[in-house]
Design a protein that fits this description.
CATH architecture of the largest domain: 3-Layer(aba) Sandwich
Shape: globular
Subcellular location: Cytoplasm, Cytoplasmic ribonucleoprotein granule
Pfam family, one: AAA_12
Family: Belongs to the DNA2/NAM7 helicase family. SDE3 subfamily.
Structural class: alpha/beta
GO biological process, one term: regulatory ncRNA-mediated gene silencing
Helix content: 25-40%
CATH topology of the largest domain: Rossmann fold
Radius of gyration: 34 Å
CATH class of the largest domain: Alpha Beta
Strand content: 15-25%
Largest sheet: 8 strands, mixed
Organism: Agrocybe pediades
Length: about 1000
């Protein structure tokens, strides 16, 4: 039979429809042989294989050795340092350090000048037919045409300043004019201006760039004495960066030949001084991962007293990452390939109660490996220390922003520059300040650090990870908690609130049927029930519901004991503060880690804590600890109960608020260490909002980003149509936002079930205001064509143009005497850390109290006014391709949280051409535009066209850009051909010239 046309030659082809004969599993392009079909399929989907088939081995030519060197800069360096190259250079008597040259064709490979790669000859046909090659070929043609168009030609010169540079907004609104002169210095020249067009005004949907062109007078003839004068006007009412192309079609009237001259028009609307103040401090240079200095032995330092403030009777496991797994994670390859390998080799074949622990232990190790890598970014190579009393103080850039996050008790390794390699001193953090930490070292450490420099390495605090491993090692494997089924649910109809006769602590719950049902269901749960979920969309009062449920459980059962957890201290403090209104300090205990400072604790909770004489938070004696009816902790700190010696089953109920933000191992610290067969578990949260923050893409792909709450909500036992009131209740009354702000996320994420119930005195505060293009619609999309920048070694993006627009809105809000807006009423959300830093600096003189932060920092919060800066404005040709990068703006949950924080006014500042590439954002922009909330440059697509939810709009943009390039190149070609296009009958009477 014939050979398989696939890249395989023989074996079992992964294409089920293949009818060809095979004998072995081989990938011809890569010259790899595979034992199993599964391994081959993984390889065929890998980036390495695709690059190989496309011919993407980037190469340079060595004229000394007469060979092409593939593999990029690293391979070139290895080649010129190699023995053979050095010998050839010596024989030829030339320096060995030569610059790489353009590759040349060889016997085995052909050089593609469009793609700048060497392609194996047998794959040349495949390569030139690939979409990437065709795209680069098109761009190259376009680039040549553009360069040709930009040149003065046929004795015609186009003079004039067409880069308007910075234009103040008031000047831009009035209009700024530049004069362009089309001249010739040749007396006998006879040329005329045939046409002048702007590129933005061509195509099916013209876009307004702000530029316009007008001819002075009526004459279009260009002579040595009289040039043609054109007025180029820039008029724009909005901040941002604007660009266009002026195309001048001219004709040599004597020769009857036409030609084209093009010029790029540019302008930046904004204040030059403000732009200069925010511009990158240094050009962006990607940071390369250097090989970390070896650590052979560490001299221990004295730990702070906080580490011994709680006398634990159970020690945490070390839980070091297995060597084989660490080796696998250190391997090269794409995320998908590494994930596939790790899943096959290390992960259990299926997830069930018996494999739950081992499954998540591996994910924890994978995440820890990435966290260790990420924390290396903050290492300081040439630091200085100052000594005061027993402490050595180290300045840590970014400490205030928790980049890196450092707590009392953390370990930082220090080595003096020039000291014996491999020997480091461990410094425990004893003092934590705004921008520096106070360390203590062993007595043999440098006594006087003045004038000395040190290598500093930050180490990951493994205690949270070890607590999760401890939980995963637990013998608690009850299916009704880990993998609840419909059969675990109580039979019959759910208990209705009217039958319980609850005496509510919060009387407002009585008027909210879903909240009342949730409380009633939780109170009436039989012992040992499956977990109960309170599904709380934004602003629906899920924490209020949980607090009421805890109070009612205590009221209904005098023997009830509750462990209440939340992923963060701030969320746990909210629960404890609300419970403190009805519980005494003998009934409620708020446990804090000993490393926490008193000033970080709300005053209202001080009496609900236990503090040692040295000022550290701790735990009271066991008999007192067991007497509390409610203990409130963070999810990670919940392990204190087991480690302090409390017995399993002591708590009748375990509540986890904001459970969607915690990883499954975090949530299970409390459950697996303290629950028994009778313990009831209650979770509250919203799986449609942000989940836990996971750093490792491999851990994300393998499931660590899916919270326990989300996993349950995706199971049959939590289908609200059949299990409402038994295992789940969805809260639907929104007490936060104006109905227009709520409408879009309500339809997209919550099936349109949310009901606007907020106070109109709050939600209507900005209606009819100067900020709204549509006076009854409190959402604004302010279109800004800006530029995203990076600086120094930081990969984080910022956008100066958007910063200035955000600042102008806040200035107007602060200066508005009709509608008083305090700093605390405004929140600014930006998805990039660099943008947050620049915004804070820019707002310092305007409104220093305005909170600026990431989406994560705003989850669970609300403000009267929310301004979102989306940052990205990447619209440039990169490697002959138009790539638009949304970063993590294009994340449905991130979007949902960002747009549901506002109570009365939501302002989005961003580049619509970039945002519209994402179907969700495109739908939202259409919603705003059709309701009159748009300001700035007009929309560039038809907002009435239904959005394809699975549409790849980036491909549409690329295709349109390619059509534009083809069209421009075609026009240039048509005009050039027109130079030769004479009357077809003109030569009929001319004799033929004899040609020997």
């Amino acid at each position: 039979m014939a050979n398989c046309p696939n890249v395989l030659t023989t074996g079992t082809c992964p294409d089920a429809s293949c009818e060809y004969e095979h004998t072995i599993l081989t990938c011809e392009p890569c010259q790899f042989v595979f034992v199993t079909n599964e391994a081959l399929q993984v390889h065929l989907s890998s980036d390495k294989h695709r690059r190989r088939v496309a011919g993407s081995s980037f190469a340079s030519h060595c004229r000394i050795c007469a060979v092409n060197i593939t593999g990029g800069e690293k391979a070139w360096t290895q080649h010129i340092e190699g023995r053979r190259h050095l010998e050839n250079a010596s024989i030829q008597g030339v320096p060995a350090d030569v610059d790489p040259q353009v590759p040349s064709d060889t016997a085995t490979g052909s050089y593609c000048n469009f793609c700048d790669i060497v392609v194996p000859r047998r794959f040349w046909t495949v390569h030139v037919a690939s979409s990437k090659h065709k795209s680069r070929e098109t761009f190259s043609t376009y680039k040549v045409a553009l360069e040709e168009a930009a040149m003065d030609k046929h004795d015609i010169v186009v003079e004039g300043q067409l880069d308007f540079d910075f234009v103040d907004i008031d000047v831009a609104r009035a209009g700024k004019h530049h004069i362009v002169a089309i001249k010739t210095s040749v007396p006998a020249s006879k040329c005329a201006l045939v046409d002048m067009k702007l590129a933005s005004m061509q195509g099916s949907r013209p876009a307004f760039s702000g530029f316009s062109v007008n001819l002075q007078g009526n004459s279009r003839s260009i002579t040595a004495r009289y040039p043609v004068i054109i007025f180029v006007t820039f008029k724009q009412a909005h901040f941002g960066r604007y660009e266009d192309r002026l195309e001048l079609t001219l004709e040599d009237t004597q020769l009857k030949r036409r030609f084209l001259i093009a010029r790029t028009l540019r302008a930046i609307v904004g204040n030059k001084t403000e732009h200069e103040a925010l511009r990158p401090r240094a050009p962006y240079v990607p940071r390369t991962r250097s090989k970390p200095k070896r650590i052979l032995n560490v001299v221990d330092g004295p730990p702070p007293p906080a580490l011994t403030a709680v006398r634990y009777v159970v020690s945490l496991p070390q839980a070091k990452i297995p060597a084989f797994l660490e080796t696998a994670l250190a391997g090269s390859g794409s995320t998908s390939r590494l994930s596939s390998h790790i899943k096959k080799v290390f992960m259990p074949a299926s997830l069930h109660s018996g494999t739950h622990g081992s499954f998540f232990k591996n994910l924890l190790w994978i995440e820890e490996y990435k966290m260790e890598q990420d924390i290396e970014r903050y290492d300081i190579p040439n630091a200085t220390l100052t000594k005061y009393n027993d402490y050595y103080y180290l300045g840590v850039p970014g400490l205030a922003e928790k980049r890196p996050s450092v707590l009392v008790g953390d370990q930082i390794l220090v080595q003096e520059v020039g000291a014996a390699e491999g020997r480091w001193f461990e410094g425990h953090v004893h003092v934590l300040r705004q921008a520096e930490v106070g360390l203590r070292f062993h007595t043999t450490f440098v006594r006087n650090p003045a004038g000395k420099h040190f290598h500093v390495r930050f180490k990951l605090n493994r205690i949270p990870v070890r607590r999760q491993h401890q939980a995963m090692n637990s013998a608690f494997t009850e299916d009704r908690v880990l993998f609840p089924r419909v059969s675990h649910l109580p039979g019959g109809p759910c208990r209705r609130p009217s039958r319980l006769g609850l005496k509510l602590c919060n009387p407002l719950i009585a008027s909210n049927p879903p909240q009342l049902q949730a409380v009633s269901s939780i109170v009436s749960l039989p012992r040992g029930s499956p977990p109960f979920v309170v599904f709380g969309p934004p602003g629906t009062g899920k924490t209020i519901t949980i607090v009421e449920a805890i109070q009612q459980v205590l009221s209904a059962n005098p023997n009830a004991r509750v462990l209440a957890c939340a992923p963060s201290n701030s969320a746990a403090d909210i629960i404890a503060t609300r419970l403190a209104s009805t519980l005494t300090r003998h009934e409620l205990f708020r446990f804090y880690a000993p490393s926490r400072f008193k000033d970080q604790v709300p005053d209202a909770l001080r009496n609900y804590t236990f503090i040692l004489s040295d000022g550290h938070f701790s735990v009271p004696p066991m008999n007192r600890l067991q007497s509390f009816r409610v203990i409130v902790v963070t999810c990670v700190s919940a392990s204190f109960a087991m480690n302090f010696g409390m017995t399993r089953g002591h708590f009748t109920h375990i509540f986890v608020d904001e459970a969607g933000q915690a990883t499954e191992p975090e949530t299970f610290i409390s459950i697996k260490t303290m629950a028994d067969q009778n313990t009831n578990v209650v979770l509250s949260g919203d799986p449609k909002q942000l989940g836990p923050i996971i750093r490792s893409p491999i851990a994300r792909e393998l499931g660590l980003e899916t919270s326990y709450l989300e996993r349950l909500m995706n199971s049959e036992a939590y289908d609200r149509r059949t299990s409402y009131g038994k295992s789940v209740v969805k809260l639907v009354n929104n007490y936060r936002s104006h109905k227009a702000i709520l409408e879009f996320p309500n339809k997209k994420f919550y099936d349109g079930e949310l009901q606007p119930c907020a106070q109109r005195s709050v939600t209507d505060a900005y209606l009819d205001s100067q900020y709204l293009p549509s006076k009854k619609f409190p959402i604004v999309f302010h279109a800004v064509y800006g530029k995203d920048d990076r600086e120094a070694s930081s990969p984080s993006f910022f956008n100066i143009d958007e910063i200035l627009v955000v600042k102008s809105y806040i200035q107007k809000l602060k200066e508005d005497r009709k509608r008083r807006t305090a700093d605390d009423d405004i929140g600014v959300i930006a998805p990039y850390h660099a943008q947050c830093l620049k915004l804070r600096n820019s707002l310092r003189s305007v409104a220093d109290g305005v909170k600026v932060g990431s989406v994560e920092e705003f989850q669970g919060q609300e403000r009267k006014v929310i301004i979102v800066s989306t940052v990205r404005s990447s619209k440039e040709f990169v490697e002959y391709d138009l790539r638009h990068t949304l970063g993590f703006v294009a994340n449905p949950r991130r979007f949902n949280v960002a747009v549901t924080r506002a109570q009365a006014l939501l302002i989005i500042v961003g580049d619509p051409q970039v945002l519209s590439l994402d179907p969700l954002w495109r739908s939202f922009l259409n919603y705003i535009y059709l309701n009159g909330g748009w300001t700035g440059p007009d929309i560039t697509w038809d907002p009435n066209v239904p959005v394809d939810e699975n549409g790849k709009y980036d491909e549409v943009i690329r295709r349109d850009a390619q059509l534009d390039m083809n069209e421009f190149a075609r026009r240039m070609e048509d005009i050039t051909m027109a130079e030769l296009d004479e009357d077809v009958d003109a030569n009929v009477d001319r004799p033929w010239r004899d040609v020997e």
